Amino acid sequence: MAAFAAVTTLFFAWGFITSLIDPLVAAVKGIFSLTDVQAQLSASAFFIAYGLISMPAAVLVARRRSVPSILIALGTMIAGCLVMLVAANLAIYTLVLLGLFILASGITILQVAANPLAAALGDPRYSHFRLTLSQTFNSVGTFIGPYLGAVLFLEGLEVKEGEVVTQAVRDNALIGIDFAYFWICGLIAMLLVFFLLARKTVEAAAPAPMHGDAGIVGTLKEALSSRWALFGGLAIFLYVGAEVAIGTQMALFLNADTVWGASDAPAEIGWLARFMQLDSTPGVSLQEAGKAVSLYWGGAMVGRFVGSALLARFNAAWLLAIFTGVAAAMCLYVFAIGGVEAGFVALSIGLFNSIMFPTIFTLTLERSTASQEATSGFLCTAIVGGAAIPPLVGAVSQSAGYAAAFIVPMLCYVALCAFAVAATRAAVQVRDEPAAASIH
C-alpha cells in the first residue's frame, strides 16, 4: 500500500508541475518584458522534452526494471528544479528554459515508468482501478497547480500595453518562482529517498523488464511503418498543442479588456468571485485571471469522470468526434464573437478536452499494425505538439489579439474530428488487451 501511495504521488507531482507552466508563461512575460511568442517558449522548452526523450525512455524502461528508471527520472527532475532556482535568483530567462527542459525530461521518463508500475502494485484484478485512481490524482495536480502558481507568480503583475512592471513586483514574482520550485525539489527528494529505501519491496511487485533489442531507431522505424500510428501521432501532436496553447494563454486572454479585464461579470457569480478571490477593484487582474485557469483544467478533471461513464456506453470514436466538434465550435465562438461571454466559453473547453488524449491513444493502439510498445512510444513522442503549437498561437495573438489566436486550436480540433470519423471506419487489429494510456 505504501509503495502504491508513493507511485500515486508521482502522478500528482507531474500533473502539478506541468500545469505550473500556465501561470509561468504569464509571469515571465511580465518579469522579462517578453513578447507573446517569447513567453510561449517556456511551454516549448518543457514539451520538447517529450519529442526528444520519450523513445530513449521507452528503451530504458524496456531494458531495466521500473524502479531504477524512476530513480533516474527523479534525479533528473531535482536537477531541473535546481536550475530553476538558479534562474529565479539570477533572473535569466534562458536558464528558466533550460530548467524546464531538464525537469520535463525527468517527467517524461517518469511517465513511461510509472504507468505499468501503478498497474502492477497489487491484485491483478484491480490493475485498471489502480491506474485510473493514480491518473485521477494527476488531474487533481493539474487543477491545483495553476491556482497556486497564480498566487505565487502573479501578485501585482500586469502585462497589458502601457503597464509598467516595477522592480519590486518583478522581484516578488521571482521569489514566488523560487519558493515553488524549492518546495517541489524537496518533495521530489523525499520521493527519491523513499524509492531508495523501499527499492526491493517495490521491485518485487514491478513488471519484469522486456530486454528489448530493437533500440530507439528500430522502435521508431516500426512505428513509422504503420499508417495509423502516424495518423494517431499527428492527432496527439495537435491535441496536446491545442490544449497547452489554450491553457498557457488563458490568463492573458481573460485579463484582456475585451474579455474580463474591464468587466465585473465574474464578480456577479458568487462562487466564481470567491474562487478567484476578486477584490473591489473594477475588472479582473492578471493574478485573478490566473486563478480562473484552474477551472479550465478542473473541467478536464470532471470531464474524465463523466467521459469514463459515457465511454462505457457509447462508441469511443463517435464520442471523440462529438467532443472535438464541440471544442472546435467553442473556439470559433471565441474567435468570431468574443466579448465577456467568451471568457466562460473558453474555460469550458477543458470539459471537452477531457477524454481526448486517452481516447486518441487507445483508438490508435487498436488500429496500428505496429507493436503496442512501438506505437505507444511514438504517441508519447508526439506530445511534442505542446512545444510547437503554443508559439504559433503566441504569434497570432501578438499580431491580432488573444481572441483571434483561438483560430489555431479550432483548426486542430477540426482535424481531430476528422481523425475520429476516420477511426469509425478503420479496421481494428486483433491483439491482446491494449495498454493503458498515460494522462499527459
TrEMBL record:
Pfam family, one: MFS_1
GO cellular component: plasma membrane
Keyword field contains Disulfide bond: no
GO molecular function per UniProt: transmembrane transporter activity
Cellular location(s): Cell inner membrane
TM regions (residue ranges): 43-62, 69-92, 98-121, 133-154, 174-197, 228-254, 294-311, 318-338, 344-365, 377-396, 402-423
Membrane topology: Multi-pass membrane protein
Superkingdom in the source lineage: Bacteria
UniProtKB keywords: Cell membrane, Membrane, Transmembrane, Transmembrane helix
Protein name as annotated: MFS transporter
Species this protein is from: Sphingomonas gilva
